[in-house]
Design a protein that fits this description.
heterodimer, A: Aldehyde Oxidoreductase, domain 4, Aldehyde Oxidoreductase, domain 4, 3 domains, seven-stranded mixed beta sheet, five-stranded mixed beta sheet, 20 helices, 26 strands, 21% strand, globular, B: alpha+beta, Ubiquitin-like (UB roll), DNA polymerase, domain 1, 2 domains, 34% helix
């Protein structure tokens, strides 16, 4: 048996949850695993449904963010979550730095709507940007408040004090000292987080910027880290869901009187169907044995990707938008007067989150209230959606984030939370719902497909005079970036509630200074996909990998057309100095071999090198891929990735390396293997056989990383997604160099590579 | 129909009352409270549920509990005796070989079994031996470093 969580905490850090509670409760944490966030499993007592919680915590109050216990341990609350990249450790570093306490004394609590301030949650790589900044302000405010308290206690002016390791002492008389625990232990600060609280000069940092090992990893390798799937609530039952077999199918018959082992309740609302049983294996069996019939609606999808891309290219757009930020000149005129034009089409498929574990959630709905534990990324909007779904006041709903399997945007976690809430409401007891693999892979919201057409014009001396990028895709966020209302959840859609779907245009981000430039995004309607397996949603770097694949592949095509080396082409046309810097850094580190046309060596095994770069919301990445292709089979392997990465000042360089490497592998998986399979009525990707991903044999021999612009004072930007963006393009460009032919459709399967070779 | 089955898990004898076809994983997690093995697919395709049965790495999600009776079972919780760490676990910490960590049970249990059976496994043998495992976050580079580190420490008889 694993050690109880509290004992574990005692062993590791000498701090327990009970100490916090006993301390008189400046702020009662919902769990305590210092520096790490593995809530709930041994928590006593668990939050109880029926209680009331504040509609919103006061983010202006320092006590919302920080608490210091009598023993000097620090609890920091942040409205972000850790999707698997170890950001909790970085948060602890930020707090430790500003407060002058050892990093291991800081416990970070994340994503509990009753305990942590509403920052919506994590998304778009904003954990450090928003969460880190808020904690820095809170830490600085806390330090200022502690110095003032110490000044009174020691009768020394603030200017004559210094803080170190959680102790304030007089600069001139070290015997005059008082610890943080003695100053505020267990009591409230009762001060505001002044926006102007003076944070430290980054040049003086001692904790931020250092390679602090992740706090969560020792717990993970011992099997003691508690995920939401591991949560056990007393009296908990087990649920499973039953989905329509075909897109648009409606329930026509359900035998509610069926008797099955352990069955507590068959739950049905609209087309939402689930079972609740005493034991988990009984719920699995009951879901399979359920006597249920569905309608056979007309086909909603396409026969295959050819048909889908044809639809995207020819279908009527509901909106057409131009990128006003990056438009100049008269593109049509420039193309018409060009000495030569280049044109290419690219296609990017539906992709699945296919998280490592199917989503799991535990819900307790009774006595007029609800507690839901979920592995979600955005617990705050989810709270509103659950309240909406259960028709409860928001104050009576609490969503507690617990770690899930890695999520990369809007995966199946929120849907599972809503489903669990419905099941728990129906039985009046806590219900743990875990999806089966097909519920996850086939039913999670999908990254959307896009079809591109790019055109460029060259003048007589091979200068680029026109650049035209046209994207045609679905309103890519049918499933919005957070579950704000009940209709945003799958359950809500199966019941027939209205979603708050949104749309964002699909433009590549780059800073090429071509004389005439245009980016157009046509969005096709796809609202009828709500409640089906091909709902579109945010998947890691939403649309970014697709748009960059098209744009950066085309940059190479135009470079070769102009007789230029791909690196030289980028350095000639990039207008942003930071972007040119990462391109240069990656090329240098990779030992870039200059070439002005694909080299396409003879022989069965061909080697090639490709580069692509991308800015992403202020972070900059350039990647060189070295590939080796077997011409006879179309199989290829990336031998080496070289990454130049600029996300400003790096909070934790050790962890950044892990995040970059993982981005590379996952993005390579998406580029090489991943396309959701479907027929006209269903998704056929239901497991790891039908939705293959990368395996360890494909791991490159080497990954070289150059960190650029990592200097104190450079604003810390996101790193969760930027590396993903240029990966497909870098590989496609390397394949082109190796083979002399271009693969313009993701994924680069052996069949598509062979087809390109033979075309 | 439920049956009383006797299991030997992490050196302890445990009695469970379950339907014999219940997946071993479900019994380990829900009846014995051993949460390290994870439900990733229930199909034996990802390895997140890996445990050792008589020293061999098996997929507990696709193993009926009845077929585990009479065998010696080890989960990640019992991989190293009393609070210590197995060399593979220590190497995973030293190489920071986890993102979300949901798959990590499978990698550690499989790597430990692999290095036990083939202490001198080549790079190729390590990659092929672990190819059946999934990691969705893409931790593969760090995992490879960790397994090689554990291998060299085991070979030299040192733990760290």
């Amino acid at each position: 048996m694993s050690a109880p969580m509290d004992d574990l905490v005692v062993t590791q850090r000498g701090v327990t949850r009970r100490d916090f509670l006993r301390s008189g409760g400046a702020l009662v944490v919902s769990f305590a695993l210092p520096g790490c966030v593995s809530p709930g499993a041994r928590e006593k007592p668990l939050p109880v449904a029926g209680a009331a919680w504040p509609a919103k915590l006061d983010a202006s109050s320092l006590d919302t963010w920080l608490a210091i216990a009598a023993d000097g341990s620090v609890t920091a609350n942040v409205g972000k979550i850790d999707a698997g990249m170890g950001i909790g450790t970085a948060f602890a570093q930020v707090v430790a730095e500003e407060l002058d306490v050892p990093v291991e004394r800081v416990t970070v609590v994340m994503g509990d709507t009753a305990m942590t301030p509403d920052q919506r949650g994590t998304g778009s790589s904003n954990g450090i940007i928003q969460g880190g900044a808020a904690l820095r302000r809170a830490g600085a405010a806390g330090r200022a408040a502690l110095l003032e308290l110490a000044s009174k206690r020691l009768d020394v002016p603030v200017a004559g004090l210094e803080a170190h390791d959680g102790v304030v002492s007089a600069k001139k008389d070290a015997s005059k000292r008082v610890s943080y625990g003695e100053l505020v232990g267990g009591k409230r600060f009762d001060v505001k987080v002044a926006e102007k609280a003076k944070a430290k000069d980054p040049r003086t940092y001692r904790v931020v910027g250092k390679p602090v090992p992740r706090f969560d990893i020792p717990h993970k390798v011992r099997g003691e880290y508690r995920y939401v799937a591991d949560l056990v609530v007393p009296g908990m039952l087990h649920g499973r869901v039953v989905r329509p077999p075909q897109a648009g199918a409606t329930l026509t018959n359900l035998n509610l009187s069926q008797r099955l082992p352990g069955l507590v309740r068959i739950v049905q609302r609209g087309n939402f169907v689930g079972v609740v049983c005493e034991r988990e294996e009984q719920a699995v069996a009951a879901a399979r044995a359920l006597e249920i019939e569905w309608s056979s609606p007309p086909p909603m999808y396409w026969t295959d990707y050819e048909a889908l891309y044809r639809h995207l290219r020819t279908g009527l757009a509901v909106t057409t938008e131009h990128d006003k930020q990056d438009a100049r000149g008269d593109v049509d005129a420039a193309l018409a007067s060009a000495a030569r034009t280049v044109e290419a089409r690219y296609e990017y498929p539906f992709q699945s989150h296919a998280s490592m574990g199917p989503a799991c959630a535990v819900a307790d709905v009774r006595d007029g209230g609800a507690v839901v534990w979920a592995g979600c990324q955005k617990p705050y909007p989810l709270r509103g959606a659950i309240a909406d779904l259960l028709e409860l006041p928001k104050e009576k709903v609490r969503v507690v984030w617990m770690p899930g399997p890695g999520s990369y945007g809007m995966n199946d976690a929120d849907d599972c939370a809503a489903d669990a809430a419905l099941l728990a409401q129906a039985v009046g007891r806590p219900v743990r719902l875990q999806y089966m693999r097909a519920d996850a892979t086939a039913w999670d919201p999908k990254g959307p497909p896009i079809a591109f057409r790019l055109r460029a014009g060259l003048d007589g001396s091979n200068g680029v005079t026109a650049w035209d990028c046209e994207a045609r895709g679905f309103s890519g966020r049918i499933r919005p970036s957070g579950t704000d209302v009940a209709g945003d959840s799958l359950a809500g859609q199966l019941i027939g509630l209205k979603a708050k779907s949104t749309q964002l245009p699909q433009y590549p981000e780059e800073s090429y200074g071509f004389a005439a430039k245009r980016k157009v995004s046509h969005l096709l309607p796809w609202t009828h996909s709500l409640g089906t397996q091909l709902r579109t949603a945010h998947l890691r770097d939403p649309d970014g990998m697709a748009t960059c694949f098209a744009s950066e592949s085309f940059a190479d095509e135009v470079a070769y057309a102009a007789g230029m080396d791909p690196v030289e082409f980028r350095l000639r046309y990039l207008t942003h100095a930071g972007e040119a810097a990462v391109v240069k850094a990656a090329a240098e580190k990779a030992g870039w071999q200059r070439h002005t046309a694909p080299r396409a060596p003879q022989g069965r095994i061909a080697r090639g090198q490709g580069i692509a770069y991308a800015p992403r919301h202020g972070s900059l990445v350039a990647i060189v891929a070295d590939v080796e292709v077997d011409r006879s089979s179309g199989q290829f392997r990336v031998k080496r990735f070289t990454v130049a990465h600029d996300c400003g000042f790096v909070v934790n360089p050790l962890n950044l390396r892990g995040t970059i490497e993982a981005n590379l592998m996952q993005a390579m998986s998406r580029a090489k293997h991943e396309a959701v399979r479907f027929d006209t009525g269903r998704v056929l990707s239901v497991d790891w056989i039908t939705y293959p991903i990368v395996d360890i044999r494909e791991a490159p021999d080497a990954v070289d990383i150059v960190i650029v612009n990592n200097v104190p004072g450079a604003k810390s930007m996101g790193a969760g997604e930027p590396t993903t963006r240029p990966v497909a393009a870098a590989i496609a460009n390397a394949l082109h160099d190796a083979l002399g032919v271009r693969v313009r459709r993701v994924p680069f399967t052996p069949e598509s590579v062979l087809a390109a070779i033979r075309a | 129909m439920t049956k009383t089955l006797e299991l030997e898990v992490n050196g302890r004898r445990e009695k469970v009352e379950v339907a014999p076809e219940t997946p071993l994983l479900t019994v380990l997690r829900n009846d014995l409270g051993l949460k390290a093995p994870k439900f990733g697919c229930g199909l034996g395709q990802c390895g997140a549920c890996t445990v050792h049965m008589d020293g061999v790495a098996i997929r507990s999600c696709a193993t009926p509990v009845s077929s585990a009776a009479g065998s010696r079972l080890t989960t990640l919780e019992g991989l190293a005796p009393g609070g210590t760490l197995h060399a593979v676990q220590q190497a995973f910490i030293d190489e920071q070989a986890a993102q979300c960590g949901f798959c990590i049970n499978g990698w550690i249990m499989s790597a430990a079994a692999l290095l036990q059976a083939n202490p001198k496994a080549s790079e190729e043998a390590i990659r092929v031996g672990l190819a059946g495992l999934k990691c969705r976050c893409g931790t593969h580079m760090a995992i490879l470093r960790a397994v090689r580190l554990a291998q060299s420490r085991l070979a030299s008889g040192s733990k760290a």
